[in-house]
Target: Aldo/keto reductase
Amino acid sequence: MQTRSFGSTGLTVTSIGLGLAALGRPGYINLGHGDDLEGRREVEALEQHTHDMLDAAWDLGIRYFDAARSYGKAESFLGSWLRLRGRAGEDATVGSKWGYTYTADWQVDADVHEVKDHSLSVLQRQWPESRERLGEHLDLYQIHSATLSTGVLEDDQVMGELARLKHNEGIAIGLSLSGPNQADTLERALEVKVDGEQLFDAVQATWNLLEPSAETMLQAASDAGLGVIVKEVLANGRLTPRNDREIFSDRFSLLKREASRLDTTVDALAMAAVIAQPWVDVALSGAATTSQLRSNVAALDVHWDDTASNALAVLAEEPSQYWDTRGNLPWN
Model:
């Protein structure tokens, strides 16, 4: 897997990265997540499993790794693995996020798993926490799930603090997006300037065969020099055979047909659809097992073509429908 430039940041990334949302805590919303971690929910066991996953990703050529303060102990697990890697780990590019606080206390059935707060005080608390866990490996710091409704992009104090981190700490600044209005939020983010300079260096957004609505703005962000990361490539498992409530419908049978035609798996096909977009720098795998990861990486061998693109365009949902469905996925 070859490295490539990440927008105008000066960083390098690989076309597939590993996101740790499903690895840093015992509960997550991916379909079948509980089965993936069966017997590995204790902190020490999950840390070892995460290290095994990171080793597998490294051996497959992956060099971009993505965490967040709210992903349980993901930053700590990633940091301990990077220290074990020593000088070799310096070849990794690492991103993390601030703005959510993990509140589940390692309980899968917690009433509330994370609390969102984009205030200056949270940024000033979480930045040193991220730096402590990831050290000098931390290359990209992102607002976690920025939306227009939180008002974070209008908060001059927060924007100023991010600009200070960018210049004083030498770190790239990004934002991740969430919800049906991703494109509107990104359009506003591209307008944010501090002292006449564009603040944001990168954007992380959901784009997949079910939710492609932000495509035009993501192309605009790439054209503006931002690095572009795509998350939820497999729609939290909805674009895999685990989605037994939808995958056997006539609409979803198209996925199986095109996967068969291209001699690949459903998940690799969905990943290939993302990698094929010219504005994408990194497609994140959210795998929780090494077999899932290897299957995802097989997307690099898929010849995505116009036939697949045209056939699968009908899978796209209204953004509100997609995000309502996502919001009702159970933690497991």
Residues 3-325 form a domain with the TIM Barrel fold (CATH 3.20.20.100).
